[in-house]
Amino acid sequence: MSSTAHAERIGDIAAVKGVRSNTLQGFGLVVGLPNSGDRGNFASSNLITLIQKYGIKVPETIHLSSRNVAAVMVNATFPAFAKKGQEIDITISTLGNAKSLRGGTLLATPLMGLNGEVFAVAQGQVLVDGVSAEGIDGSTLDVNLASVARIPMGATVERELNYDSVFANRHITMNLHASDFATASEVEKTINAAFGPGIAKAIDAGSLKVVAPKDSSSRIEFIAMLKALDIQMPEQQARVVINSRTGTVMITENVTLSPVAISEGNIVINISEDQQVSQPNPLSAGNMVTTSSSQISIERRQGELEVMKSTGTLQDLVSALNTMGTSSKDLANIIQLLKQSGSLKAKVIVI
């Protein structure tokens, strides 16, 4: 079965080099928990260190032990072009044995990038989607995860990233999300057809250089117009994705099978092709036409025999195997055997 091309925007399949989000992370404390915090000394010792930063001396004879505190890791995604004073969402996860973060408050926590510099500060009342309950006999009930929480708009940006490289150079670089020679060539043709010959030049299968206006305002408008262009996507590689746990199979439309015979367990699969010749009427001006038809037969040695005549596609084979009640493990094995034998013309991905 041949696949048809489809249109997508360039902005959906490519991004401007240098314009990207970054990961922020920090260590913090959640306080105010209703006796559901950490049971060890780790969170308490960090709380003492925090108190001492405010000039309050804690005597050595005092052992601060509280189940109202939990040590947590705070994660956030720092979006491109984020400005000082803007707020971003954060996710909080427990580090110790805290049962739940419900009802807690995150103390001010600096969020750092991989270079060790602080880009935002997080704090606020945490929101927990999960519920955790424990009985007297030690039995527990968990709905979702109460050890993970979030704070919408819980961090304030304190430092900005530099994006001068996007505006300083004569060219901008567009990187494809998935490297492909055909796609890079098609993007190059589409941009040159819209803005003029020589504007775009493919560097390799994953990136293109595009001549852009020097003025920042004009460049922003140009990038917006460029990303809105529609591109006719070339035919993609045939793929079969198998979820080995659920037995779900995803098949692209350009997957084909060639003749093969495979025995897997108690199932025998036979795929064959039959050439049929259509002769024209002797008095007509027609030509002789040869067509191919495929047959798929599936035999269960300890059960009934099922034979299916079709166009010989993998979709038909999977449907027949599912009708016979084939397990997800057997289905995955059969598809991989078809791939190894060379009959299956597709890339197989098992997850």
Automatic annotation (TrEMBL):
It is found in: Bacterial flagellum basal body. The keyword Hydrolase does not apply. Keywords: Bacterial flagellum, Signal. It comes from Photobacterium galatheae. GO terms for biological process: bacterial-type flagellum-dependent cell motility. It comes from the Bacteria. One of its GO terms (molecular function) is structural molecule activity. GO terms for cellular component: bacterial-type flagellum basal body, distal rod, P ring; outer membrane-bounded periplasmic space. The basal body constitutes a major portion of the flagellar organelle and consists of four rings (L,P,S, and M) mounted on a central rod. Assembles around the rod to form the L-ring and probably protects the motor/basal body from shearing forces during rotation. This is Flagellar P-ring protein. Belongs to the FlgI family.
